[in-house]
Write a sequence for this structure.
């Protein structure tokens, strides 16, 4: 059997080797976009799309971490400090919330017989369910892509305080990483 010899030009030899570590962030961000698409296309309870989705990376993750820690200290919620530390291991954080709007169903799922009697401070139950479905769809996409994630109320609460996404309620955060071990699990609670 005759083996063919292939010549690789020395000038282009480096271009032939793609190191996973140097391309990781770019690939995670492409995956984050797929998660955002999955959240957007998730089924809606009444078909009304009032879900808002955004993602933060870089310095904004530090801002979100600091706000999470601050709110934990102000409210005596120790797990916020643990989650604030975990955010710093994320390549990006997907934020999913809903605009405050009723669906005018008078379904009483929120505890009030008609939408007009519901105080503005009480979220619409259909919107809350739609947010949960969008979060599940985003996490399913992440799982399909073998990304490390965790759904965080704490960081979502902080994002909402930062008005990320703008004018939203019921915000939850999904930190995303691609590492050899999920940095968002097996966590020690803060004392």
């Amino acid at each position: 059997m005759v083996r063919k010899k292939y010549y690789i030009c020395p000038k282009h030899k480096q271009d032939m080797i793609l190191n996973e570590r140097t391309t990781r962030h770019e690939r995670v961000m492409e995956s984050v976009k797929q998660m955002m698409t999955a959240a957007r296309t998730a089924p809606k309870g009444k078909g009304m799309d009032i879900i808002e989705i955004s993602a933060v990376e870089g310095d904004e993750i530090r801002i979100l971490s600091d706000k999470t820690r601050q709110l934990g200290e102000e409210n005596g919620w120790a797990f916020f400090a643990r989650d604030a530390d975990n955010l710093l291991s994320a390549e990006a954080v997907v934020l999913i919330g809903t605009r405050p709007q009723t669906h005018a169903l008078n379904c009483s799922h929120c505890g009030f017989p008609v939408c007009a009697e519901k105080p503005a401070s009480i979220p619409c139950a259909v919107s809350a369910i739609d947010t949960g479905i969008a979060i599940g769809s985003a996490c399913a996409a992440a799982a399909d892509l073998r990304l490390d994630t965790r759904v965080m109320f704490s960081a979502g609460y902080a994002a909402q305080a930062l008005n990320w996404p703008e004018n939203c309620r019921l915000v939850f955060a999904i930190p995303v990483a691609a590492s050899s071990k999920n940095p968002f699990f097996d966590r020690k609670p803060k004392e």
